[in-house]
Amino acid sequence: MKMLVLGAGLQGSACAYDLLQQPQVATVTIADKTVAHLPAFLAPYLGKQLTAVTIDVRDEAKVTALMQGHAACMSAIPYYFNLAMARCAVEAGVHFSDLGGNTEIVFQQKGLNDLAVKHGVTVVPDCGVAPGMVNILAEQGIASMDTVSAVRIFVGGLPQQPEPPLNYQIVYSLEGVLDYYTTLSWVLRDGKRHQVPALSERVPVDFPAPVGSLEAFHTAGGLSTMAFRYEGKIPTMEYKTLRYPGHAELMASIRSLGLLDLEPVTTKDGTAVIPRDAFVATVGPRLTKPDGRDLVALRVTVEGTRGGERAFWGRELIDYFDAAHGISAMMRCTGYSLSITGLLQAAGEVRPAGVHTPDECMPAEKYVAELAARGVAIREMAAPKA
Fewer CB atoms inside 10 Å of the end CB: C or N, the chain? Predict the structure, then answer.
């Protein structure tokens, strides 16, 4: 089969690499506005199984033409293109998935459902690690219960060797991180939807050594549409980001000083400056660690009842930088999640036709098994001691 990846950045490159390892994939096309700096791990495939194409995704006619003939298209470009790219894929009669991250756009994509059904294709937004992997796991836990009282999700991409003051390194778009730090987050409280501030309600979360104690706090996007699906059905549901202790307080102070604002301010010489742009330009290079090795820590827990008894379901993951291939843990967890989604769509294992979030349509056991085959091992957690 032929597969198409939009976006030649970190996650798109990891997605393309994983597709190239699969015997059922004959060729992969990777497309972006520039493909001149593909990572070294893709170099052996260029001109053979892998074709790199330069394209401006704002030219929807060209994108639609490029999509035709591929079994599936996986999008790893910024979220604000996802609605248009999904529409192009449906018109081309091609399965589509993306990394998502913006729930409003996901709801707009769901407006394409009838057209996707007509064309016999699936559209699956929010297919990274969070949203994506965690939602599939949460749905698996919910399905294992007779009744559910609480769903809690924790995820973080972290440096293995943290450096102060932020103890953080860029593992994906810094702009995306700052969006999550400044946007209200949906949660379920007493079965009702509420929005809470990002960086709030910090709690400690302990992982096995060498990770140790982390802090968790609210950020937007991780629940995808699950807070809407389960309103009135599950009392408590929340998603929190994991960082090393102290990070959230520092970022909250930076935010309170206006350094993450999007409204322009005027300097003494009359120049208009957007504070967040200045922050990214200044801090981004300092948080970019070309030789830094990362890890991904993940935990999903579901509490409820089964057979009339209190029950617990939990899954945990700690994944590390792949030194042999130069692929970060975040690229493995996010890019591979996207590639697995596209492969399962192309194989007809994602059903029915239409637009569905991963928790609504992905075959969880098959998905988890595919991750394990790539060394991304999700382990079962024991119930906490009473």
Answer: C
Name residue, tokens 């706090």.
217
Indicate the DSSP class of residue 367: H
Over residues 303-330, the mean pLDDT reads 97
Give the percent of the chain with pLDDT over 90: 94
**pLDDT above 70 (res 162):** yes
pLDDT digits (tens, 9 = 90+) for 16-40: 999 999 999 999 999 999 999 999 9
Topology of the domain comprising 133-327+376-380: Dihydrodipicolinate Reductase; domain 2 (3.30.360)
- The answer to whether the bond into 210 is cis (omega within 30° of 0) is yes
Length of the chain: 386
Distance between CA 87 and CA 126 in Å, rounded? 16
Q: How confident is the model at residue 386 (pLDDT cuts 50, 70, 90)?
A: low
Contacts of 370 (CB under 8 A, 6+ apart): 340, 343, 344
CB 77 within 8 A of CB 32: yes
Residues contacting 69, CB < 8 A, separation 6+: 2
This prediction's pTM: 0.95
Distance separating alpha carbons of residues 88 and 60, to the nearest angstrom:
7
Domain boundaries, the chain: 2-127+331-373, 133-327+376-380
Give the residue-averaged pLDDT of 75-103.
96
Mean pLDDT of the chain: 96
Whether the CB-CB separation of 31 and 53 falls below 8 Å is answered with: yes
Question: What one-character-per-residue DSSP string does 122-190 give?
Answer: EEE---BBTTBHHHHHHHHHHHT-SEEEEEEEEEEEEESS--TTTT---SS-HHHHHHHHHS-EEEEET
Residue 235, preceding peptide bond in cis (omega within 30° of 0): no
pLDDT recorded at residue 171: 77
CA-to-CA separations, 220 to 101, 186, 386, in angstroms, rounded = 8, 7, 31
- Which CATH fold topology does 2-127+331-373 show? Rossmann fold (3.40.50)
